[in-house]
Amino acid sequence: MNAVVVIPAYNLENIIGKVVSEAKKYVDVVVGIDIKTKDKTAEEAKKAGAEIILNAGNGKGEVLRTLFKYALNKNYDYIISMDGDYQDKPEEIPNFISSINDYDIINGSRYLEKMNGKLNLFGLINIILIKTSKINIIGNLLLFFIVNFISFGFNFKSWVTDTQSGYKLFKREALLKILPYLNSRKYEIETETLFFAGKFGLKIKEISKKVDIKRKGASWKDGLRIGYYSLRLWIKFINKII
Q1: DSSP per-residue codes, 42-87
Q2: Lowest CB count within 10 Å: 55, 112, 151, 173, which one?
Q3: Are 72 and 175 in contact (CB under 8 A)?
Q4: What is the pTM assigned to this prediction?
């Protein structure tokens, strides 16, 4: 399969080599180095077999957009984005590839497995309550409702359980549609991706991803910041239509 993994990287010299080595078993790998990186991430990634883009941007959003453009210019048919700290497991790449079929985007979810592979609102809330520190519960719930509603409206069948997942597979045609509209510099890139996928009617499928690295999740401040960004996106989009 003509596929590539793109990894935005910031100070990951201790783990990026392992991530690249594992991913290279399945696909080509391109690592984009954030301009704020001060360690040997680029050297370790290159040593493991990745192609390197230095000074790819300032923040995850900028770096990912640079990587997406690179992958499209190289005529890859399938582009997989993943984080480089090993929270997204490279050994799960075949699961993403085998699931794409008639879909446009595959979204990896850390919650889906606990709900028997299907969105269950009460189940999701319960998981967030149990798995997330109390101070971050509000942020995670805010993001779930706001991002899904502005992206998919009342089409609940299209709602995703993990709105902030960085582990995704895009068909080339899907990425070509949404990339011109992506503008965020930081972590809002995940929200933007779902928003424009929803607005263009792209078909998204979620599959389970395993995360064994303890994550803080979104704080209430993150929830408000990204939620506010999402609402601004929606208002801009509505104004353009009108």
Answers
A1: HHHHHHTT-EEEEEEESSHHHHHHHHHHHHHHTT-SEEEE--SSSS
A2: 173
A3: yes
A4: 0.86
Give residue for tokens 């984080």.
Answer: 83
- Is 204 in contact with 105 (CB distance < 8 Å)? yes
pLDDT tens string 170-213: 999 999 999 999 988 888 899 899 999 999 999 999 999 987 65
Joined tokens for residue 221: 């401040």
How distant, in Å, are the alpha carbons of 55, 60, 144, 183 from that of 66?
Answer: 10, 10, 27, 11
Pairing assessment for the beta strands 28-34 and 204-208 based on DSSP bridges: unpaired
Q: Which residues contact 53 (CB under 8 A, 6 or more apart)?
A: 30, 31, 32, 33, 66, 67, 70
